[in-house]
Design a protein that fits this description.
The complex is a heterodimer of chains A (about 110) and B (about 850). With about 110 residues, chain A is an all-beta fold. Chain A has a single domain, classed as Rieske [2Fe-2S] iron-sulphur domain (Rieske Iron-sulfur Protein). Helix content of chain A is about 0%, strand content about 45%. In chain A, a hairpin with a 4-residue loop joins strand 9 and strand 10. Among the domains of chain B are: about 170 residues, FAD/NAD(P)-binding domain, CATH 3.50.50.60; about 120 residues, FAD/NAD(P)-binding domain (3-Layer(bba) Sandwich); about 70 residues, no CATH class; about 160 residues, 2-Layer Sandwich (Sulfite Reductase Hemoprotein, domain 1). The two termini of chain B are about 60 Å apart. Chain B has a 5-stranded parallel sheet with strand order 5-2-1-9-21. Chain B has a 5-stranded parallel sheet with strand order 11-18-12-13-14. The chains are: A mainly beta (about 110), B alpha/beta (about 850).
């Protein structure tokens, strides 16, 4: 069985301030959605795999997010750990023409 | 064809075991260009990358975190094109077909098979130890892997009294770990003294005293026969002599057994472990090798890590053809370790074998120092050093190389007119092991320097020397210095204020002023070569607030979460709320409002802080605005790198010893400096007399009344992780002067301290004399400017809890954003 990828419009771009993250509920699961100063958007799993820190509360730049609890840092595109063995799940995210954030979430 | 076609055909290397042995062997193969010769596949039955088992005890004691003990991250497998089957246990080797099969059905063909299955914990026969299905009963643990550690830590939190069976090295490490979790700990040992593999009776007795001094109870000569149960729960142990010990958890650390069954099933010669020859190959099959704790070589089975380094090298030399003459000739065991803070080195035998063996001994039980050497024919055959192991490096080398000892035996135990260190580094042989945890030699460090590494940190990163227990870091740095011929470089970035901008703080401040940069974004755009950097944001935001006061553009994304929502984040993502309580005083009405808030929001914990305030802990982000509104008190600024609070005693108000109004002064200080950003937190206190009840002498700034309206001002004190008595900066007359000088000192600190540099580091770094010259005597003529700058910050400060009714950013306090949709729904 192939995995179905569904695109979800999770909210308006302006719901997330530049350089910050917010938690959204998408298809029954919570994701951390980030917006950079360049208005790019990224989506990752909600919690840090290390000890469950809220990633949406982390500091970000144009490519990484730092978990606020213990500074575990992840690449926003790939989810790979920068200073840790842990890695996070990422979801393709983009901004639609109408200003909505679109996140692709797979469904089994 | 075999042996003639290296490089022209790719052979299949399959490794059973992904522990330290398997991984090290593969590293050695790769180091000999093995990636071109082999396609490599590894099987590991633990679902992790490979990790440093030596450091498990640090996980148990909470000193290190899981992620810190991995030797090779998963990327390493990818980068080296190694296929890893983790969580798969190889159950069958078909030697005729040269195929291995794992319990999950995976099959792999091999040309070369390496068995590195290591060993497992030995569980001595005891009644009641096993539950159904061949598992240890709940409450009983082996101490061998990451999963064991996790289970022990979880159980220890529930346990009152733990018993450790086995008083060897690992058992004592386990005892140390348990002690850190607050259990009463008992060590049960079969032998007549602790660590009987490494120590003699006298050494063991001394170690026992040291352990008991730390709170571990030691029971010697006890053989456990039965685990006593109350229902299904562990209730205690019964020993062969009929005595019993009550306990509610048991950790078994009674030695290890090689995982050699896979060898027996494949028809290889297995005695105590899988037998190998000097090339690490099985005598029964030219395609099968074995290394590590599952191996028996010349009748010996090793349970330490050091022999593995040599075995892995010989294996790699052999299979890659790099040196087909390479042979492993056995290891002489010498270890240097720290057991519960007691430093210990041990090598060779612990007791003389005959009257001809010469014993040199020194014992000073009061200081826990014990030294014993056994010399045969002028050469060292055994040694124990405890307490003082300064001669360990020299003696271990003499032991390992079997070199002739000096006739003056006293020199063996003590440094007599200590020879200079340089001589030792020069004399140290190239293959001498520097880092025992990661098996890095002096030669390897030299090679790394020759490849261009010029700093200790660069060498440690490249070779992993010093990244285990860390005890060799000093030696690694010295060797790097030595190899560089005194031209070792300091990493220049340690002087930068933030990692993203190559400037020290004074230069950075000058540029920011010169170019009028008023936001963190503007600073990145103008000064950061690589642009925005997440970790650099909070230090820049703090610096800009200091420089520009009210004219700083506060971009909230540059702030740590605490400063975005004005509360202190907790481990579960909730927050703590501390309202201001100047002077540690609140009105009955305020106290009632705090109680009402605690009830209304079901606050899980109401706690008095060390700063004489009330902390409401465990509040959801979304509840913060409501909590603040209902409290109707100003923010206590208990979350940031800023002025925090000012403790005080009762002072003259009621105290019969009071010499000054410490409560009044503390209140004035709090009202003036609340919310002022700084490089690290600033904790203050006032004391009404030198009895110092409010601990003002160990604060960043402490003011102590000495009578006649005079106040002593102490700076640079600390009583946290670091303890330092503050330095007496000056004595001033009157509260106004006390406020002014304190403020001027804090401003000077704000402008000149490094990010996260507390005053206890800052004051000694700058020097008290220099600080006094600037802050008290105005030697530089800057006092007026410092006072003005502090005043500007004071005037710019505001109560951030007012954002309860006027949030600064979209969804500032939302735990989850409720999606507001325009147009259609999901595509």
């Amino acid at each position: 069985m192939t995995e179905a990828i569904l695109k979800h419009r999770v909210g308006l771009l302006d719901a997330v301030p530049r350089g910050e993250g917010r938690v959204f509920e998408v298809a029954g699961q919570r994701l951390a959605v980030f917006r950079t100063h360049g208005d790019q958007v990224f989506a990752t799993q909600e919690h840090c795999p290390h000890l469950g820190g809220p990633l949406a509360d982390g500091l970000i730049d144009r490519g990484t997010v730092i978990c606020p609890l213990h500074d575990r840092t992840y690449d926003l595109r790939s989810g790979a750990g920068v200073n840790t063995e842990c890695q996070v799940r990422t979801y393709p995210a983009s901004v639609g023409a109408d200003g909505a954030i679109v996140v692709e979430v797979g469904q089994d | 064809m075999d042996g003639m076609t290296f490089g022209s055909t790719v052979r299949k290397l399959v490794v059973i075991g992904n522990g330290m042995a398997g991984a090290r062997a593969v590293e050695e193969v790769l180091a000999r260009g093995g990636a071109e010769q082999f396609s490599i596949t590894m099987f590991g039955d633990e679902p992790y990358g490979n990790y440093n088992r030596i450091l498990l005890s640090n996980i148990l004691s909470g000193q290190q975190d899981h992620s810190e003990i991995y030797i090779n991250p998963l990327d390493w497998y990818k980068e080296n094109s190694i296929r890893l089957h983790s969580g798969a246990r190889v159950t069958h080797i078909d030697r005729a077909a040269r195929v291995v099969t794992a319990d999950n059905g995976v099959q792999e063909e091999y040309d070369i098979l390496l068995i590195a299955t290591g060993s497992r914990a030995f569980i001595p026969p005891m009644e009641g130890v096993w539950a159904e299905g061949g598992r240890l009963r709940p409450g009983i643990f082996a101490f061998r892997g990451i999963d064991d550690c996790n289970a022990i830590v979880a159980e220890a939190a529930r346990s009152k009294r733990a018993a450790v069976i086995g008083g060897g090295l690992l058992g004592l490490e386990a005892a140390r770990g348990l002690l850190n979790h607050g259990c009463e700990v008992h060590v049960i040992h079969l032998g007549q003294h602790l660590m009987d593999m490494q120590l003699d009776t006298a050494g063991g007795a001394m170690l026992r005293r040291a352990m008991e001094g730390m709170g571990v109870q030691v029971h010697l000569g006890k053989m456990t026969t039965t685990v006593l149960l109350e229902g299904e729960k562990v209730a205690g142990l019964r020993f062969k002599d009929g005595t019993e010990l009550a306990c509610d958890m048991v950790v078994v650390s009674a030695g290890i057994r090689p995982n050699a069954e896979i060898g027996s099933r494949a028809g290889l010669t297995v005695e105590r472990a899988i037998v190998v020859d000097n090339t690490m190959r099985s005598p029964d099959d030219p395609h099968i090798y074995a290394v590590g704790e599952c191996v028996q070589h010349r009748g010996k089975v090793y349970g330490l890590v050091a022999p593995l380094w040599d075995q892995a090298k010989v294996f790699a030399d052999q299979v890659t053809g790099a040196n087909t003459g390479a042979e492993y000739l056995g290891s002489k065991l010498a270890t240097k370790l720290k057991v519960m803070g007691v430093e210990l080195a041990s090598m060779g035998i612990t007791e003389p074998a005959s009257d001809a063996d010469e014993v040199i001994q020194f014992s000073e039980p009061k200081r826990g120092t014990y030294k014993k050497l056994i010399v045969r024919d002028g050469r060292l055959v055994g040694g124990i050093l405890m307490g003082d192991i300064s001669k360990a490096a020299y003696l271990m080398q003499a032991f390992d190389r079997d070199s002739r000892l000096p006739d003056e035996r006293l020199e063996l135990l003590f440094d007599l007119g200590a020879p200079p260190q340089k001589v030792t580094l020069d004399e140290m042989p190239v293959d001498a092991q520097v880092c025992n945890c990661n098996g890095v030699s002096k030669g390897a460090i030299g090679a790394c320097v020759a490849d261009g590494a010029r700093s200790g940190s660069a060498v440690m990163k490249a070779t992993r020397a010093g990244m285990g227990c860390g005890s060799c870091k000093g030696l690694v740095n010295e060797l790097v210095e030595w190899f560089c011929g005194g031209e070792a470089e300091e990493d220049p970035s340690i002087h930068y204020y933030v990692p993203a901008i190559p400037l020290a703080k004074p230069e950075l401040v000058a540029k920011i002023r010169e170019q009028g940069l008023r936001s963190v974004s503007a600073v990145f755009a103008a000064l950061a070569p690589q642009g925005e950097d997440a970790a650099s944001k909070p230090p820049l935001a703090s610096l800009l607030a200091t420089i520009w006061a009210g004219e700083y553009e506060d971009e909230r994304d540059a702030r740590f979460i605490n400063d975005r929502v004005h509360a202190n984040i907790q481990k579960d993502g909730t927050f703590s709320v501390v309202p201001e309580m100047a002077g540690g005083v609140c009105t009955p009405a305020e106290l009632m409002r705090i109680a009402q808030v605690a009830v209304k929001y079901q606050v899980p914990l109401v706690k008095l802080t060390g700063g004489q305030r009330i902390d409401l802990v465990g509040i959801a982000k979304a509840d913060l605005p409501g909590v603040w509104q209902d409290l109707d008190m100003p923010a206590g600024t208990a979350w940031g790198k800023s002025y925090r609070t000012c403790k005080s005693c009762i002072g003259t108000e009621f105290c019969r010893f009071g010499l000054g109004d410490s409560m009044g002064l503390a209140t004035r200080i709090e009202r003036r400096f609340r919310g002022i950003d700084s490089p690290a937190k600033m904790k203050l206190a006032t004391a009404g007399c030198p009895r110092n009840c409010s601990e003002a002498m160990v604060k960043d700034v402490g003011l102590v009344a000495i009578g006649d309206d005079k106040w002593e001002i102490y700076v640079g004190g600390a009583a946290g992780a670091h303890i330092r008595k503050g330095d007496l900066l000056c004595v001033v007359e009157g509260e106004d002067a006390a406020m002014q000088i304190s403020g001027r000192f804090m401003q000077y600190y704000r402008e000149h301290a490094k990010w996260k540099e507390r005053t206890y580091s800052f004051v000694p770094r700058i020097g008290l004399e220099r600080i006094r010259a600037i802050v008290v005597d105005d030697a530089d003529g800057t006092a007026e400017a410092l006072d003005q700058a502090m005043l500007a910050s004071v005037e710019a400060a505001y109560d951030p809890w007012k954002e309860a009714v006027k949030p600064r950013t979209a969804n500032q306090f939302a735990d989850v954003v409720q999606a507001e949709m325009v147009g259609g729904g999901d595509d």
